Amino acid sequence: MVIILDNVYQVIKSKRKTAAIEIDENCNIILRVPIKYSKKLVEKLLSDHKTWIQKHIIIQREKQKNKVVLSNEQIKALKEKAKEIIPKRVEFYSEITGLKPTGVKITSAQKRFGSCNEKNSLCFSYILMQYPMEAVDYVVVHELAHIVHKNHSKDFYKLVEKFLPDYKSREKILKGR
Questions:
Q1: How many other β-carbons are positioned within 10 Å of the β-carbon of residue 78?
Q2: Confidence (pTM)
Q3: Tens digits of per-residue pLDDT, 26-70?
Q4: CB–CB of 63/176 below 8 Å?
Q5: Among 3.30.2010.10, 3.90.650.10, 3.50.50.60, 3.10.580.10, what is the CATH number of 72-175?
């Protein structure tokens, strides 16, 4: 077994074609691999990505150390602010991009800032209200772009870049880098 920074790992096998490594909020290493992945391949994956894993465990520990716990009143205020601001930003960027969602909702999602479902309805987490408007606008344009591209392909990012040429710097704000 490969142990990285005293962390053990969890292997989740599923009907997928590629392997993925995830470091969760508790600094657990989660490997998502195809069903036929052998223990030897899992250990090679860990070994080949040891530096990346160590780096992201440190990043995750820093995030947890700096995490702010919000009171119920603060959460309520952020939700109200999101309900006031985000639909207006969606409307603004819908006019510019020509991309019209079927609906807009504010959610309490903790692990994602936004999403676009198969019916082109957009959801945004109230947590976005803790970030500057340029980051909020990036998430809005990002989710609008999913109306056209349901993936994160080069074409998807070309579309985002068409409307936000500085999208990479906006994205970094959300990632804390």
A1: 19
A2: 0.73
A3: 889 999 999 999 999 999 999 999 999 999 999 888 888 877 788
A4: yes
A5: 3.30.2010.10
